[in-house]
Write a structure and sequence with these properties.
Length: about 375
């Protein structure tokens, strides 16, 4: 009886320490039967992490997307509240390909605002937490201390100026999840897509390039025609004559900009692409409405010639890399029809989505935005 009471007491003490946040960073080692691997995460922390875990959670914008890219979605035991419901507008291919995410338990709020108490109630318990954008939201070291679970921070990266960070993050996740072959295959696939785009665009002489502009770019919500990206990746990959791009300015300083309407008119691009995320603004606002209902734009060449085209949103809970590549092929098809003559943009998009998230989801995505994607927009 005394032994039983002592055992109950010890279990109670341990349980209290966990819930009270008394678990130290040294106490994240799981049962001896689990093989461990050492990694250095994005914050430079050296961590002992379970090798090939059975259960994980992904915190922060894009973390769950990267796990899906590595075909590890079946290991996810809970999600943040961004994944808990499907909005009427949704431009996240990884989520459309995995509707089951909406049925999983919630472990915290979106953008990395984790809840340690909720994490400790999960059954089964995650053995690793992957966390992007670690300097925002819940502090990774504190989260690890509170839960006793290794928290691996990742630099999300991008396809243009920070590609190595993306590759590194995929490789860190892959090392832990035993998905190295998959990571290398995906990295190679991205390389091949970009090389193909650049090779096709190189066939077009400089003096035959058509001036263009992209408006309505999503940036922490929907925006109108003035919202653009001077270093818009689909334009960079296709060597497009982007009127907003400044060749002597670092790309990292040209991520997002709000251009004056007068400046757009002065540039007078021959073709305008519209990120259809602008539709969230409503029928009586947004980029297309501005172009077609505000007289200030009436004399622009793109407006008069009807050369306005809808492209996929890709800034949606950070960047959707498959959508960036799909947009680039559509941009190439519009600007250089001969160089991209063999490309069916919709089929290409689904090929890319299948490579990234395992399923063709273009139709579902397009339906969310009124079937305006990859089409000439009516005025």
């Amino acid at each position: 009886m005394k032994k039983t009471c002592l055992l109950i007491f010890l279990i109670s003490v341990i349980g209290f320490q966990v819930w009270a946040g008394g678990v130290s960073e040294d106490s994240v080692t799981p049962a001896p039967s689990m093989e461990m691997t050492e990694i250095t995460d994005a914050l430079g922390r050296q961590l002992q992490v379970p090798q090939n875990p059975e259960y994980i959670i992904c915190s922060g914008p894009g973390a769950l997307r990267l796990a899906t890219y590595l075909q590890a979605e079946d290991l996810v035991v809970a999600v943040d509240d961004m994944e808990s419901e499907r909005p009427s507008f949704d431009a996240r291919p990884y989520a459309l390909a995995n509707p089951g995410f909406t049925k999983l338990p919630i472990f915290g709020e979106f953008r990395g605002h984790d809840n340690p108490e909720l994490i400790l109630t999960l059954e089964p318990q995650p053995q690793v937490i992957f966390k992007t954008y670690p300097t925002s939201g819940y502090d990774p070291a504190e989260l690890q201390k509170k839960t006793g679970i290794p928290v691996v921070t990742l630099n999300y990266g991008d396809l243009v100026g920070n590609r190595e960070a993306l590759n590194h993050s995929l490789r860190i996740m892959a090392k832990i999840l035993n998905k190295t072959e998959r990571a290398e295959s995906l990295i190679t696939y991205i390389d091949e897509m970009i090389i193909d785009l650049q090779t096709r665009a190189a066939l077009v002489p400089e003096d035959q390039r058509i001036s263009c502009y992209v408006g309505g770019i999503a940036y922490s919500g929907p925006h109108g025609i003035q919202s653009t990206e001077p270093a818009y990746p689909p334009f960079l990959f296709t060597n497009a004559l982007n009127v907003a791009f400044e060749p002597n300015k670092p790309i990292k300083e040209q991520r997002h900009a709000d251009m004056a309407k007068e400046q757009i008119i002065e540039w007078d691009p021959e073709v305008i692409f519209i990120d259809v995320s602008t539709m969230q603004s409503g029928d009586l606002s947004g980029a297309l409405y501005e172009l077609t209902h505000q007289k200030i734009f009436d004399n622009m060449r793109a407006v008069q010639g009807g050369n306005i085209y809808g492209v996929l949103p890709y800034n949606w809970y950070t960047q959707n890399f498959g959508s960036i590549l799909a947009d680039a092929y559509y941009v190439g098809k519009v600007l250089y029809p001969e160089a991209f003559g063999d490309i069916d943009p919709v089929k290409k998009a689904d090929d890319i989505y299948t490579a990234f998230v395992g399923r063709p989801v273009f139709e579902k995505l397009n339906e969310s935005f009124g079937n305006l994607i990859f089409s000439k927009l009516e005025q």
